[in-house]
Amino acid sequence: MSRREPAHGLPGPVGRPGARAAPRLAVDLNLTTHRAYKKRCLLELLAGRPLSRHDLALATNLSDSTVAILVDELIEEGLVTEIGPGPSRGGRRPILLDLCPDGAFLVGLEFAATACYGLVRDLKGRVVARLERRWPTPRGPDTVLTHLAEAVEELLAADPVLRARTLGVGVGVPGLVDWEAGIGRYYPHIPDWREVPVASILQARLGLPVFVEQNIRAVALAELRWGAGRGHQTLVCLGGRNGLGAAVVVGGELVRGVGAAAGEIGHITAEPGGPPCSCGRRGCLEAYVGPGAWQAELRARHLPEAAGPAALWAAAEAGEAQAVAFCRGVVGRLAAAVSHVVGLLNPSLVILAGYLAAAGPGLARELEAALRDLALPGPAQQVRVVQGQLGEAAGALGAADVVWRRLAPEYRTLSGGVSWR
Ligand SMILES: [Zn+2]
């Protein structure tokens, strides 16, 4: 199996709204003899929607009898169930198959400098357990990894069946991430966070497969499948917890760049020689509009930092001059940067996540309006700016999905109008 990111995972259907044509695989499953691979392909197809055995045979180019044998095995393994007859296509009504929700579970974690969020979801995407852990000040890699391992143990402790049927753990890691090697490469908001082998350390502690993804990309994967990004193919997801990053999706696929550092929009230069940034340089966009800038403004106004961006935005909407000036500044700086992204990528959507979503819908509205003035008229009219729909859980939800994507076989659907991106 290639190490490239598999094309899609559980569950669907997402893709083009209303498209119901039979799915097709771009690979001919007769060309592989690997039984587990074939079964995973069938599971992927069923993640889209219930299908009959004959639908599965058509989608995979396997014979009806081969599909029947594989489906029997999947039913016996508790991963697939018969849900009753589907609509007739001229003959006998076919029995439809669906994923068995509690046939397997996926754990998703996401963390930043002082908190981690975790959840367990079933095969149908339902969250069956979740938790949040906070610690008062940023701690080094050992402490963070201990928190993560304990979070997983706590999530799975509720029910022995959960642990037995958990396929793996996905972790949304902040900063620069080597997603293939499972390494957190650099994150300035956690002391000594350099070249941390997150996946191998957690795998050894937990005895489960562990996969990592950069956390804003995990958010984007979740929003793409279940949230604001449904039905979109080219979008940018913007935000973060301690910093400002972006996930870029083009043609339904994450764009990573040669060093997996694509989307580091927080560290483009907004003002040469401007204020110092967490990355050690000066004048980065993050220094003006990142979480640190919002927190500094809250402190300056004697508001608790826990009040978050929503408090400042509310003050601006109430007409408080200083808050108005700050929020206008944020919108202006963000719009200038995002207008370049709109010019480069012509996306249909910009999703605000993390602290930017926490500011409330007003920020998305103002940013969209500002883009109308700054970007080329065509692309400016085509892009919408929205808040993410999945809130705090988005990163962990996307991280859990990464487990499925990495475990599942790499294949694409052919035309037929079905896509699980
Ligand atoms: Zn910077």
Shape by Cα distribution: globular
- The mean pLDDT is 87
- Terminal CA distance: 19 Å
Question: Helix amount, in percent?
Answer: 25-40%
DSSP strand count: 16
The number of distinct helices, counting runs of at least 4 residues, comes to 15
Strand content: 15-25%
Oligomer type: single chain
How does CATH name the architecture of the largest domain? 2-Layer Sandwich
Q: Which CATH class of the largest domain applies here? A: Alpha Beta
Radius of gyration: 23 Å
- The class by helix and strand makeup works out as alpha/beta
**Biggest sheet, strands in spatial order?**
6-5-4-7-11
Which ions and ligands are bound to the chains?
zinc ion
Give the biggest beta sheet. Answer: 5 strands, mixed
Query: In the CATH hierarchy, what is the superfamily of the largest domain?
Result: ATPase, nucleotide binding domain
Poorly predicted regions: 1-19, 409-421
How do the helices and strands line up, and which of them pair or pack?
Blueprint: H1 35-48, E1 51-52, H2 53-60, H3 64-76, E2 80-85, E3 95-99, E4 105-111, E5 115-122, E6 127-134, H4 141-157, H5 160-164, E7 166-173, E8 176-178, E9 183-186, E10 194-196, H6 198-206, E11 210-214, H7 215-226, E12 235-239, E13 245-250, E14 253-255, H8 285-289, H9 291-300, H10 308-317, H11 321-345, E15 349-352, H12 354-358, H13 361-374, H14 377-382, E16 384-387, H15 394-407
Parallel strand pairs: 4-7, 7-11, 12-15, 15-16
Antiparallel strand pairs: 1-3, 2-3, 4-5, 5-6, 8-9, 9-10, 12-13, 13-14
Helix pairs in contact: 2-3, 4-6, 7-15, 9-10, 10-11, 11-13
Bound molecules: zinc ion (ZN).
